[in-house]
Write a structure and sequence with these properties.
Blueprint (H helix, E strand, L loop, with lengths): L9 H14 L9 H4 L6 H10 L4 H14 L2 H11 L7 E2 L11 E11 L3 E13 L5 H17 L3 E9 L5 E8 L2 E12 H9 L4 H19 L1 H4 L5 H10 L6 H14 L8
Parallel strand pairs: 3-4, 4-6
Antiparallel strand pairs: 1-2, 2-3, 5-6
Helix pairs in contact: 1-5, 1-8, 3-11, 10-11
């Protein structure tokens, strides 16, 4: 494929995608029945879902495996969003917990224009995956951290950068601290596309990255196929258990096998 991104090399981008996929770690391990039922599934919910959504057992089991894998994947995608900036000019990604605990620090000796606030030379970034992931206490704590940074550095701005914002924006962040509404023109709430545009100087930089991402993920997954592609056996093991039931209907026999995962010691089932 022809490489059109000017702000990151194909090699750096590919390596970053590979590192992100490798962060998935044990979540890419195959699911057998024991792992599937590690925290004891809810058989009643599975059977309701299967019937109401008119799904097959294969689809319901696959969806449940996906749900279990997906619970902690947001952290891995946060890694992708944050650490890509280590490859972008004038951006620095501090080690976890160091340099004030900022996710990204952007410094530009030529100046960084802040709407309605003039020019600064450093932006300190707190990055969130989604606009609604902070409760009021967390938002207040983050705002106070940004206020303190402004007190220590009068040539900076602080950004709350949201990967999934409600809209494309670069606005004054207003929140509540100690039951009082607070805001500062140098404390900004910025969508990820606007942050990409600011640090790269290219208005559609985030869009361009999104356009090449699927092909790069596909290429990396293909290269890693022998080590990362899971081969789940849950539905096969459930069918084996169902075959041992003295129940004519295969659907009900699989339902019984699912019941046994959660209710195996319950009265009636333990017979």
């Amino acid at each position: 494929m022809m490489w059109n991104l000017t702000f990151i090399s194909e090699e750096d981008f590919t390596n970053h995608v590979k590192s992100t996929i490798e962060k998935y770690g044990e979540k890419l391990e195959s699911f057998d029945l024991k792992r599937f039922n590690k925290n004891i599934i809810d058989p009643i919910k599975l059977i309701f879902d299967k019937t109401v959504y008119q799904s097959s057992w294969e689809e319901i089991v696959s969806n449940e495996i996906f749900r279990q894998r997906d619970k902690s994947n947001n952290n891995d995608i946060g890694y992708f969003h944050q650490r890509i900036f280590q490859y972008i000019k004038n951006c620095h990604v501090p080690p976890n917990g160091e340099e004030g605990g900022w996710d990204v620090i952007y410094e530009n000796p030529d100046g960084i224009p802040i709407p309605d606030a003039g020019i600064v030379h450093t932006v300190y970034v707190e990055m969130k995956n989604k606009h609604n992931t902070m409760n009021s206490a967390s938002a207040g704590k983050t705002f106070i951290k940004m206020q303190n940074q402004l007190l220590n550095d009068d040539d900076c701005a602080c950004f709350l950068v949201e990967a999934i914002a409600q809209r494309s924006q670069n606005i004054k962040w207003e929140t509540t601290v100690d039951k009082k509404k607070v805001g500062h023109k140098l404390i900004r709430r910025v969508s990820l596309d606007q942050f990409y545009a600011l640090v790269t100087g290219q208005e559609d930089a985030f869009y361009q990255m999104c356009m090449v991402l699927p092909a790069i993920i596909e290429r990396v997954v293909k290269d890693l196929e022998g080590t990362i592609v899971p081969h789940d056996t849950v539905i096969d093991e459930l069918r084996e258990l169902a075959a041992k039931q003295d129940i004519e209907s295969e659907d009900l026999a699989i339902a019984m096998a699912v019941y046994m995962l959660g209710f195996g010691t319950y009265k009636g089932f333990n017979q």
